[in-house]
Amino acid sequence: MGMRLNPPRKFSNAFLLISSFVIVSLILWNTNSFFRKFKEEERHKMEIWATAQSELLRSSENQELGTLHLKVLQLNTSTPMILVNADNSVKINNLPAVSLQDTALIHRKIAAFENENTPILIAYQGEHLATLYYGNSEVLNKLKYYPIALLLIIFLFGAVIFFFFKTNKVSEQNKLWAGMAKETAHQIGTPLTSLLGWNELLKKQSLNPQITTEIEKDIGRLQTITERFSQIGSTPKLETSDIVAETKSAFEYLRARSSKLVHFTFNSKVDSLPVLLNKSLYHWTIENLVKNGIDAMKGKGEISIEILPSSQYVHILVADSGHGIPRKQFQEIFTPGYTTKKRGWGLGLSLVKRIVEEYHTGKIKVLSSGKDGTVMQLSLRMDQ
């Protein structure tokens, strides 16, 4: 049965999500308010500058401009502006990269300033003296991108925390599964030793030799299972093996013990191919993939394995004629605890992924899936 989140955890996740949304909304609202306030203050500053400029234009003939007006005009060293007089003469300020001779650039700047701020008309007693176009100051432009930078920092900080806790959780899960596997191997090992002794006693009796031979096969199978579980959580030993022979061995073992309603097909483009393998774990991988395919077909259909060598990898394709997997579940099926079966722990494919990718530095994925069945691709590096 698949894993389910309990109500308290659902509530805590929802609370964290809502809290994060509220915090981000408050940050954006506060920053936007500050930006608008700063923009209004800059507008007032420019209106004062326009008034001083009006006094300058009005008193240019009699040179009666006061010291205060000159001070106002001189203090503005940050806001970029373009002043267009009534006679169409132009004056620029705080635009070091703009030349008065470059009229095309000046017109583009005027259009850009109009989009940023409403132009200020300078007039005296109804007479139009000039029009002031101004853009946002450097500080205001930086403030405009502040929320984006802040959200990026929050996102990165949240991502670090998320991956930290996820890594810890995965590590704890791995320790749990490894502990359970080793304990299972230990529990099986005790009666297995006893069975070996009993089988030796049976051989000395006047029994049909075929009976003890079959018992030996089952004991050997239990020893293989014990070996597999004992290697979970530790680094298994890899040896150069023939991938074709090992795949066929696992395949034939399942063929002999499966229903006659399942049709098995094995095909390889090569007769042999050396690959670094842990035989026991690799057989377990093939068995899991084949058994999953048989379950998907509900015990009736076609199972095939094909071995395709490439330049660096050998690809093992395990195909079934089952009902298929939805594309959105291509990655989820390898998650520990995920299962679509009514009964099951959802550990089979997660163990397969770990055996292939962590122990054999290979790759595994759903190559294709649809109404005609599913193809799983297992890729292992060739031993060169």
Radius of gyration: 38 Å
- Run of helices and strands: HHEEHEEHHHEHEEHEEHEE
In CATH terms, the superfamily of the largest domain is: Histidine kinase-like ATPase, C-terminal domain
| Integer average pLDDT | 78
Q: Tell me, briefly, the overall form.
A: elongated
Number of helices: 9
CA-to-CA gap between the ends? Answer: 43 Å
Share in helix = 40-55%
Protein architecture, described:
With 384 residues, this protein is α+β, with helices and mostly antiparallel strands. The protein has 3 domains: 7-144, Beta-Lactamase; 146-231; 239-381, Heat Shock Protein 90, CATH 3.30.565. It is built from 9 helices and 11 strands. The protein has helices at 7-58, 67-75, 103-116, 138-144, 146-203, 209-231, 243-256, 279-296, 348-359; strands at 81-85, 90-93, 120-124, 127-134, 239-242, 262-268, 274-277, 301-309, 313-320, 363-370, 373-381. The chain has a 5-stranded mixed sheet, with helices on one face. α1 (7-58) crosses α2 and α7 crosses α8. The radius of gyration is 38 Å and the shape is elongated.
Reconstruct the topology from this structure:
Blueprint: H1 7-58, H2 67-75, E1 81-85, E2 90-93, H3 103-116, E3 120-124, E4 127-134, H4 138-144, H5 146-203, H6 209-231, E5 239-242, H7 243-256, E6 262-268, E7 274-277, H8 279-296, E8 301-309, E9 313-320, H9 348-359, E10 363-370, E11 373-381
Helix pairs in contact: 1-2, 5-6, 7-8, 8-9
